[in-house]
Amino acid sequence: MSQTDQISELDLALFAEITRRYFERTMGEAVALDRASVCFTPPHFEDYTGLIRMSGLHRGYVSLSLGEPLLQELLGRVGEPMRDADMCRDFVGEIASTIASNAREHFGNHLGISTPVALNRTDAARLSWPFSHLSLPFKVLGRDGQLVIALENQSPA
Hints:
By secondary structure, the protein is an alpha+beta fold. The chain has helices spanning 9-26, 68-77, 85-107, 121-125; strands spanning 31-33, 37-39, 48-56, 58-66, 111-113, 117-120, 133-140, 143-153. The protein has a single domain, classed as CheC-like (Chemotaxis protein chec), CATH 3.40.1550.10. Strands 1, 2, 3, 4, 5, 6, 7 and 8 form an eight-stranded antiparallel sheet that branches. Helix 2 (68-77) crosses helix 3 (85-107). It starts with 8 loop residues before the first helix and ends with a strand.
């Protein structure tokens, strides 16, 4: 992977660590990270996806996709009594935003992040992924999740 085209392996490791740390610290659950892969086809989406648009030196998207049963379990663990579809959709957006905000601490003011867009599986599948992306599958509480990083490095060569 070229530094001028996509994020570096160090940047990928940073996103993986932020994701792992979020679930382990916030939820008290171990995360089993799978091996990241470069994909040229649309990602597989779970029930709900939180999408963050990135701008600045890195431009593109970061998304987090989780299934409804996992989101309902996580909502219960943070003391949320409402666990319906709307709450699951909002919560995945909040988690994606937290992951992106923590990445911004690393990249500094050179990384702009949007407010999260929370989507169900059908709406997420309609998204256009104009370039290759990295898929980082993981498991929390034995359930699948996926972090998708589709960023291009915009810094001068």
